[in-house]
Amino acid sequence: MAFETAFTMDTSSIKYGPGVTREVGHDMKELGTRRVMVVTDPNLTKSQSVSVTLEALRKEGIEAVLFDRVSVEPTDLSFMEAIRFAKEGKFDGYVAVGGGSSMDTAKAANLYATYPADLLTYVNAPIGQGKPVPGRLKPLIAIPTTAGTGSETTGVAIFDLLEMHAKTGIAHRALRPVMGIVDPENTRTLPKMVAACTGLDVLSHALESLTALPYHQRPAPESPRMRPAYQGANPISSIWASRSIEMIARSLVRAVENPSDEEARGQMLLAASFAGIGFGNAGVHLPHGMSYPVSGMVRDYVPEGYPADHPIVPHGMAVALHAPAVFRFTGPANPELHLYAAGLMGANTSGVPPESAGELLAGTIADLLRRVGMPNGLAAIGFKPEDVDKLVAGTLPQHRVTKLSPRPVDGEVLKQLFLASMTCW
After folding, report:
1. Residue 307's pLDDT is what?
2. Which stretches in the chain have pLDDT values below 50?
3. According to the model, what pLDDT value does residue 260 have?
4. Burial track 385-413 (b if 16+ CB lie within 10 A, e otherwise)
5. Which of 228, 232, 239, 329 has the fewest C-beta atoms under 10 angstroms from its C-beta?
């Protein structure tokens, strides 16, 4: 087998600062757009973030049409509704305002309105056909309102495939927004649990991309066109991931406990973008792969601060509850790197032997989960050991991420990891 010898570094342009949402009209006009689809979810329809965006676009003479039917944790059905709206609207640009759900929905609407196809055409194999995007998309600017997904910097769109009861997605550089407008004024109203879940998603993005299988240990693609967006850890992505971990360690608890702490909120937003640059090129691995069936198989759990009209395991929570067990497992793959990650989080690594590296990182993560009010493992959100076989079955097809694990996994390994995730401490 020939191994990869190259990696690429792609990201969106980033504009950061309090109040910079007011510049989105100028930015979209510079991109030559005249009719723009503004994508958001119903909880944000009347928000300041959306109203400022619409006003800024219209002030520049751009026709701004609001689509506010994004599902929090999107599904194939909600994606298709947005795609139909985009096709009918004949838009020449897109603006997403919201969390990862809004940004990912805008990416999908842009893709399928520009290059119409069956939904599974571009979806990652083996669930979908995994065909590459044929060319460039219309300009998309992403305005995050949560410090979480980093989707403003990535070419990834994630959704629930309802018939599978699991998440999957589309990953291609062409989906990446041309710009992320990162404005701390857009995160002021986040409930504590939402801030905690989105912040932990950032942390796991950074930890997973830092510890992912190195790019040069992956099989070489058949052609440069087939090089995946998630390439494996590389020297540049690791710089962004490392800095993000440090920022989260200093700011997450502050941002959750005190929403008026503007410095902490700003640092978390930046950390999300930093982590997005890292994992958008390196990729994520097992905590994300294992999270997808957990979110898809939720029964009746509704966390505080989320809409009570339907059960939900927030993405960041689903990821974080697996992180202690996963990093305990991956520690032997590179003990030095796991000790480094624990040190970035503030752990004392002095005198810790290599064989304890994974345990130290796992314990450091579990301590942070407690501090921000996460439930204690899968059992606390309604899962039982008898669910594990279905959870494993939902994880095995997630090759895009599972194959980036620094230690290989099969069904039996995943079963043990899910069982170990029933409690985190």
Report:
1. 82
2. none
3. 86
4. eebbebbbebbbbbebbbbbbbeebeeee
5. 239
Q: Classify residue 110 by burial, with Cβ atoms within 10 Å: 0-12, 13-18, 19+.
A: buried
Residue 356: burial class (beta carbons within 10 Å; 0-12, 13-18, 19+): middle
Sign of CA dihedral 376, 377, 382, 385: negative
pLDDT of the residue at 167: 84
- Residue 349 identity (one-letter amino acid): T
Contact status, residue 148 vs residue 198, Cβ threshold 8 Å: yes
pLDDT of amino acid 147:
83
Predicted pLDDT at 187: 82
Q: Is 96 helix (H, G, I), strand (E, B) or coil?
A: strand
Q: Which of 306, 282, 299, 305 is nearest to 401 (CA)?
A: 282
pTM: 0.91
Q: Which helix (H) or strand (E) holds 141?
A: strand 140-144
* Angstrom distances, CA of residue 116 to CA of 86, 133, 305, 372: 11, 11, 37, 43
Helix and strand counts by DSSP (H, E) for the chain:
15, 8
51-to-38, 46, 56, 62 alpha-carbon distances in Å: 11, 7, 8, 14
3-state SS record for 211-249: HCCEHHHCECCCCHHHCCCCCCECHHHHHHHHHHHHHHH
Alpha carbons 99 and 152: distance in angstroms, whole number:
9
Nearest to 322 by CA among 251, 229, 408, 388: 388
